[in-house]
């Protein structure tokens, strides 16, 4: 019933002594929650786009939170590569609109791969063709196929 729910994959959190799910650490909502806590503001007062703008303007808290966000994304992607060995891992959602997304994840993958001598396979990652609309289009397609 829950097969393929990669967001439930357990990974270490920022403390390094506890664990959390991949969704709780590497989703845009997790980034927003992290920055809201750092800035002592409500989560509904900020969004992912604003966090990236603040980081670009020099906000160190946002820069560090984004760096950690990319590290968690890369860690999960690395694990998926070695569990399933897919040809490509596609990323959708609003974050996939960022032109530098893949480059930043690849930088973090390089750091992970350099730590493990046995790691020879570099995950191939890309963004979904329909980016943040991919899930919705898939749901509409499934609905039309079922009921049309």
TrEMBL record:
Coiled coil: none annotated. It comes from the Bacteria. InterPro entries: ATPase_NBD, ROK. Transmembrane segments: none annotated. It holds the Pfam family ROK. SUPFAM superfamilies: Actin-like ATPase domain (SSF53067). Gene3D superfamilies: 3.30.420.40. Belongs to the ROK (NagC/XylR) family. This is ROK family protein.
């Amino acid at each position: 019933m829950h097969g393929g729910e990669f967001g439930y994959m357990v990974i270490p959190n920022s403390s390094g002594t506890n664990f959390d799910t991949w969704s709780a650490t590497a989703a845009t909502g997790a980034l927003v929650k992290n920055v809201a806590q750092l800035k002592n503001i409500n989560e509904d007062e900020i969004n992912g786009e604003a966090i990236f703008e603040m980081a670009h303007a020099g906000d160190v808290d946002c820069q560090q939170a984004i760096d950690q966000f990319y590290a968690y994304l890369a860690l999960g992607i690395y694990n998926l590569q070695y569990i399933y060995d897919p040809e490509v891992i596609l990323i959708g959602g609003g974050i996939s609109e960022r032109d530098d997304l893949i480059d930043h994840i690849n930088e973090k993958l390089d750091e992970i791969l350099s730590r493990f001598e046995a790691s020879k396979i570099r995950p191939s990652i890309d963004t979904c063709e329909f980016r943040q609309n991919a899930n919705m289009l898939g749901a509409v397609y499934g609905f039309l196929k079922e009921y049309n």
